Structure formats: C-alpha cells, structure tokens
C-alpha cells in the first residue's frame, strides 16, 4: 500500500466488517497462545510465558503477533520465506506442519523451536500460522542445550531445517522420534511440541469458521486491510515526528569464553515517512555463543520499534514496510555460519533491542508532541539459569529459571518506571510463583524482593529490579549455568540527564550455616548475614555445582532514569527511602536530598545541597568550545517539557531548565555543554559490581548546561571512543 497521511484509509471490506474481523484475528491468535499454556507441561511456557504465536498472510507477512516474547515472532517472516525457498511452492501441502530451530533459517536460537503451518482453502494457500516455544533441552553437549564453551555451531544443539513434523494432519512418528531422541527431557519436550501442533490446529479451525461465514475473499481482504491500516497509522506518526538522527549503543561483557566486550551500535534516522535503523559499526562476530544470525538482528530491532513507536498501532508487517535496516554481515547479530549462536537471542538480539530503544527514545524526546512516549532503557539483559540434577528420591529434575521478568522498567518522560515490571521484549511477561518452583524442584528460596538502589536515578526514577537468593533442599547436588551480561557495565541507559539503572550481578556463597540459622528460627535476609566462604561475584556466564549449604543469588537490571536527579521532588525521594527502593546514603549522593531522623525531608538543607552540587558541576566541567554570544533567555517556560530537554527557538538552542541560550541550532551543541568524566560507580552502587564499579576502560560522560548545571545527558562511554555520535542539534532540526 502506498499512502499519505492526507488520504483516508479505505478498507477492502466495509468498515464494520473490517473492525469485526481485525479483532477476530487478534482473538484467534490469542487463542493460539492460550492453547499452548493449557497443553504445554513446561513451566517455561506455562508460567514464564517464554513463547509466542503469530498469524501471517499467504506470502508470510506477519498480520498479528502475540503479547509474549516479541523477538520470537517479529521476524517470523524470515522463516516462512526460507521455508518457501527451501521446499518449493509445489511441495507445500495442506495439512502439513514444519519444525525448525535453525538460526540461519530464521529461528532465534536452537532452543526456540518454531512450528509453522500453511493454511489452504480449496487448494489455495491463504495464510500461515506460527508458534515458538523455548524448549528446555533439545540436545547437544550440555544440559539445557547451552554450551558456553562452544566455538562453532557444531559444538551446540542439533539444528532442524523444516522438518515435516505433521503430514496431511497426522503427526509423523519417525520425524517426532528423530527430534525427541536428542533431548534429555523428551517427555517434557514432546508436550511442548504437541502444544504447538494443537495451537496450529485451533487457529486453522477458527480461520475455516470465519471463511465459512464470510467467504474466503473477505478473510484474505481482512489480512491485507490489517497491514494497510497499520502502515497508514505508522506513516501518519512518522510524518508528525521531527526529522533527525539519534544514536544508541549497548555492550555485552562476556562471550561465553572470556570477558571480552562487544558493542551493538544503532543510528536511528527519521526522514519524512520512513525510518532507518542503521547498525553499522557493530562488533564483529564473537568466538563464543552470544552471536545470532540475521533474523536475530531484525527481531531485536523490531522488538524496540513496536513498543516505542507503535503503542497505539497494530504490530504487524504493515509497520515494517516503512522501516529500513542496515545490518552488516559477520557481526554479532548477523554471524556467518558456522559461528556459535546457541545463546544469541538473549544476547546479541536483546543487545540490538537495547541499542535501538535508546536511539528511538532520543527521537521521541525531541518531539514536543510525542516526548511523553519517550522511555529510558529498560530491557537490561536477560538473566536466566538452567538447573539440572537428581532429587533425594533419585528423580531427575531440570528447568530454566528466569530473573529476566523481574527487571525494572525504564522511566517515562512523565513518571517513574515500573518496579519489577519485566522486559521490554515481552509485553505479557510472567514469572513463576516461588511456591510453584519450590513445589516442582528441590529448591528453597531465602527471598525474592525489590532491590534497593537498582533503579536509575533521575527526575523520574527507573524501576527497581527483583533480586532472589535460593539454596538446595532435598537434593545432594545440582548443576547450574547462569547466563546474563552487564555485570561490569549497565545495559539500561538513562535519558535526558537520567542515570543508567543498576546492572546484573551473579552471587554465590558456599558452605553457609543455613541449617543452623533455620533451627534457631532465623531466616537470613542478606548475604552478609551468612557465615561461610567469602562471597563470590561471578562472571556473567559460568557453570558450577551447588551442594547443600551453598546459596545462589541473582540481581537483574534496574531501569534507567529520565531527567536530572536534582530535579526530583524531594518528597518522592523520601517515599522511595521509606519503601527501601533508595537508600538514605544514595538519596543524598544522587538526588541531593537530605532527610531528617524520622525520614522526612529537610527542605532547607536539601536546597543548599542541590545548589552546591550544581555549582560543583559547573566548576568541575569543561567545554570544548567557548559559549557564543548570548542570545538571551526564553520567557515562555513550558513546564510540560521534561528536564534535560533542549528547546529550539529563533534559531538557537536553549536549556530546558534555565531557558538560557547555549548555541545556534546549526552548531554542535555538545561542544558547548559542560562535560566531566567520572567512574561508573558514581551512577549507583549496583553498576559494575563485578569490576568494583570502576571498569577501567569505561567511564560516565556527564553533560550539563553551562549556565545552571542541569544535566542534559549521561552516557557510559569507552575511554577510547570519540564523541562522534549524532549531536543533539540533529534531533530537533526541522521540528
């Protein structure tokens, strides 16, 4: 569809039928998801919601995606396109279903098994259905199918390339047996497989009911109307956003083999009715298993694009018609065969989402109309751990546990981020109940609670995360493989002068006296309350065996903040301290808020403290260019503009806080701002604990208004990086 914002959307079906059918298609897709939850026996799917479903048109364009893991199906068209090319049109038959987990066919990684089904009506292909579930174990040298020591894909789980799992409506026993024979948990994996087949059958049946009622052409028209409608809405939004360019990046600090650094870079360029996501400059593919194939890069990009730019627009391929991507071959998110890719979906794909989200957040923050949609970083890094062993009844147990879904969300331009709100890539994220985990596995949790000081500081605070600690119970030993990143640098960037959120931390304390504590009626609430060996802060990726008395801890990312923390209402800071979301010490250090002994705000001391902190910024910072001739101040203060946002008027840029001029629009405004460098630990106590908060090759670059000291931007920068990202002035050109 080629349209303009001035034209009205004209559905092929009449308007009432259009509305009825687009909602009916959503409902059919939702029923696919409900079927998986009802049939699958895996807690990964039934409680963790680590799956997704989609409906596609005959050509493989996504018509509707489920509300679960966006990355699973946002690039599902790559799988369908490869299926058509590999199998040939003449070999794709009614009643068949195909299974693939091959990343070079479009799967996220080998554990994310996809089942696609062509839907035919009277010999004509009219649609595809698709589902993806993270299977607990699909084979390979390591339990859980992740091999941190893999150096090629041949060291990982087996790949299946369009295995015909169902023929003419019947499960193929030889194909299913071939698939299941490699799994350590074939019974559990078979339940997931049958759940995917069941959801495909449900979707096909519901589509046939619609066709019987409305006719096949009406249903085909409904598919295309959905795509055209989303395209029209997205085009309208793009035309209302100012043209400009913004930059975001994120870093992975472990590749499975060593603590090397890998960076995904994204330049978001909005020009008229199109947007470009350019990932040029991303790090080359890694020797370890954090890579992903090309579909993973697309999935990561779209997982940021949909929630940031399309909160009120249907998420389908109509939106993607207006999106261009540049993804270089041989990089961590477009790795060449046979690179190891076993954990790419929760590394390079997710890192791609973070970089794109930060860039898109900056574009939104530059729009007076849509700045309220701007969000700081809140994807963080996935935090997952596979456990395997035998309980005291000699029964095997295994699962994947998630801390990803208790991450803190990024702050919004008008409010704090949600605490323990989950990850950006899963709108309907879920986390298993502690009681369910303890009932199914020989574990005992010491706690799962909100993590103090994990939310990025800002005028609007990032959401705090949820930390956990557990030990073995009714088992002699257990193998555990934690996987995350961001243990030495935060993966949740702040926006408009807000600080990054707390990073990920992997903890282990061995040989504790838990049994003695419990017998005396004590339940330790912190690692420092446990006797035993010295507390270990582990690498982002590791494997080890736990025995009774050992305690494992996981702290996932908090959300990034928005706006200068010194602009935060002191009463809000005091409330955060009362709720143990911010500690008194960091309330003073980051927010410049002084509290009385009873927890109330000392407003006079707070006022003086904040004035002193702003003056220290002015005294300590330096600018690369002297301020130009003063163009005066703006008189029309608009309080709706968030702290840290620059204002443009009369050809000049002004501080959004003091409203004094900084630079002409055409000048590089960052060169006129005050800049100073500090260690990462200055942003909070949970950033980079693995490196003691002082990673030597990274530091905070803090930019502030030269007149009032208000923070404009806070960035985590590599010491060798040049300040060559798009300047702030590009964000408001042509606004």
How does this model look, in words?
This protein is of the alpha+beta class and 735 residues long. The chain folds into three domains: 15-231, no CATH class; 375-563, no CATH class; 621-732, no CATH class. The protein is 27% helix and 21% strand. The protein has 16 helices and 26 strands. It has a seven-stranded antiparallel beta sheet with strand order 2-1-5-4-3-6-7, sandwiched between helices. Strands 14-15-20-17-18 form a five-stranded antiparallel beta sheet. β6 (163-167) and β7 form a beta hairpin. α1 (15-39) packs antiparallel against α6 (186-214), α6 (186-214) packs across α7 and α8 (294-309) runs parallel beside α10 (348-365).
Kindly state the percentage of residues in helix.
25-40%
Class of secondary structure makeup:
alpha+beta
Low-confidence stretches: 2-6
Largest sheet: 7 strands, antiparallel
Q: Report strand %.
A: 15-25%
CA distance, first residue to last residue: 27 Å
According to DSSP, the number of beta strands is 26
The order of strands across the largest sheet is: 2-1-5-4-3-6-7
Average pLDDT over all residues: 92
What sort of overall outline do the alpha carbons produce when their principal axes are compared? globular
Number of helices: 16
Domains counted in the coordinates: how many?
A: 3
What does the radius of gyration come to? Answer: 26 Å
Can you give keywords for this protein?
seven-stranded antiparallel beta sheet; five-stranded antiparallel beta sheet; 27% helix; disordered N terminus; 735 residues; 16 helices; 21% strand; alpha+beta
